[in-house]
Amino acid sequence: MKKTFIAAKQESKFNLGWLLGPLVGFVLLTLAETISFMVIVPFFMYQIPPLEIQLFSFVFISLVVVSWARWIEKSPWQGLGFTKKKAFRSFISGWGIGTAMIMSCVFLMFMFGGVSFVGFQFSPNLAFQFFILMFAWTIQGSGEEILARGWLFSSVSAKYHVLLGILVSSLFFTVLHLGNDHLSVIPILDLFLFGVLAALYMLRTNNIWGISGIHAAWNCFQGSFFNFNVSGTKASAAFVKVSLNGPDWLSGGDFGIEGSIFSLLVQLAMIIWLVYDLKKNNPSLFMSH
């Protein structure tokens, strides 16, 4: 039987508790943001778009978290979900799933009158910008996943129980976004559900690559293919321009697709499938470490 990332994480020098873990997580995040501010601010003089600068800054979150886990906790790479086998395949599969989820949300929003398509644009410059943003969104999504799932979820699950790990890491992920603009009840529920989905998907693939791909594609296609806001943040120019119609719970409003009830439904469907698949193929997973 292959070793899971949770079993690998149990080989760490120590694993923080369910309360101390999130607190240290916020400290690591603050440290990473401080370092990124000191390093990246000079690049503003080169007229690099703010969105790209913000997204690329997430590389510091990954570096700080990995450094803590490897040097302080003495965690093996697998304990963070870093595996060599099927890494690229898992990441590409994740991109495909994330893209399909966003497309499903947009289709449902269109069918029920939440959005309408008002324009399409294409140019070599826009295509090049989209390519750069694909890479930037990958860094951003992977950084959040390494912190919330690769490190915190695995740590709590290794010390206590998988279900507690899912709960703590999902709440932590939600709290990380409470400062976002245009937040309301549906986006908060949506963020929590994505945390649950991400943890379950990592359990299914036994690596960090797949969920990093889902996270990256979700944000990239939401803000850089369609022109929705991403978790309340306005993205750059996109290929497809949409117009929001009706109430925010239908269209997502200024928060983006994650403010629509259809995002909740799509994620719930994915969660139900993941739970079914995990219980079918690994029935003891939710009963023990």
**What distance separates the N and C termini?**
14 Å
DSSP strand count: 2
For the largest sheet, list the strands in their spatial order.
Answer: 1-2
Biggest sheet layout: 2 strands, antiparallel
How many separate domains make up the residues? 1
SSE sequence, one letter per element: HHHHHEHHHHEHH
Compute the CA-based radius of gyration.
Answer: 19 Å
In terms of structural class, how would the helical and strand content be classed? mainly alpha
Task: Give the mean pLDDT.
Answer: 91
* Large-scale geometry: globular
Low-confidence stretches: none
Strand content: under 5%
Number of helices: 11
| Overall helicity | 55-70%
Write the layout of secondary structure elements.
Layout (H helix, E strand, L loop, with lengths): L4 H5 L10 H21 L9 H7 L2 H14 L14 H25 L3 E6 L3 H36 L2 H15 L8 H21 L3 H17 L14 E5 L3 H4 L9 H21 L8
Antiparallel strand pairs: 1-2
Helix pairs in contact: 2-4, 2-6, 4-6, 5-9, 5-11, 6-7, 6-8, 6-9, 7-8, 8-9, 8-11
Pfam families: Rce1-like (PF02517)
Family: Belongs to the UPF0177 family.
Protein name: CPBP family intramembrane metalloprotease
Describe this structure in a few short sentences.
InterPro entries: Rce1/LyrA-like_dom (IPR003675). This is CPBP family intramembrane metalloprotease. This protein has eleven helices and two strands.
Task: Describe, in plain words, how this protein is organized in 3D.
- The chain crosses the membrane at residues 20-45, 51-71, 92-112, 118-139, 160-179, 185-203, 255-276.
- It is a single chain.
- The protein has one domain.
- It has 11 helices and 2 strands; from the N terminus they run H-H-H-H-H-E-H-H-H-H-E-H-H.
- Helices cover 64% and strands 4% of the residues.
- The protein is globular and about 55 Å long.
- The protein is mainly α and 289 residues long.
- The chain starts with a helix and ends in an 8-residue tail after the last helix.
- A two-stranded antiparallel ribbon has the order 1-2.
- It has helices at residues 5-9, 20-40, 50-56, 59-72, 87-111, 124-159, 162-176, 185-205, 209-225, 248-251, 261-281, and strands at 115-120, 240-244.
